[in-house]
Predict the structure.
Amino acid sequence: MDKKYVFAELPSVQQLLEKLPNQVSGVNFKVKNKTQLADVKSKIAAVLGNEVIIKDRQELNSTLHRMLNTENLATYLVFTLVLIIALFNVVGAIIMMILDKLQNLKTLYSLGTTLKELRSIYFVQGILVTGLGGLIGVGLASLLIWSQIAFGWLKIIPSLPYPVEYQFINVLIVFGTIFILGVIASKIASSRITKKMISI
């Protein structure tokens, strides 16, 4: 298989490697529920004792998993940078709205609306824009991941779909990043409303 593995019967391999019939170099177990992995490992250790080394798939391929985690972090940081650049558009759009509605702001200020309340209007508007955009983006991305899991339309080779995993914690991290950066952008934009601007 893949010019790397050879499948053979156990007695034949034991004879080739000059092992006794009761000697094996390794045993693989398939666990149905990954949440019970630690419990399964402790039970195997209780049966086989300290003479064996028990490793899960991640421990067997620790270098690969470290590389994938680094790649995941790098991708997150790159897209966070893209998001920061995109939020400049939100800041610019809110400032343009402030300038466009300047006469209305002056009227509201004359009627007794405080400067803090005027800023809060555009602050909430900025949060709504970034929050709604984040929800739509996360929703579309979730559909894309689920479709890949279900149909495997993106393939590494014709017979092997690109492996993906949907983790809810990643969704929370992404949406949290969008929300925090959206709050900062909205705060910056709404702070452009000054007493000097609306009292002229």
The two ends are 79 Å apart (CA to CA). The longest strand covers residues 155-157.
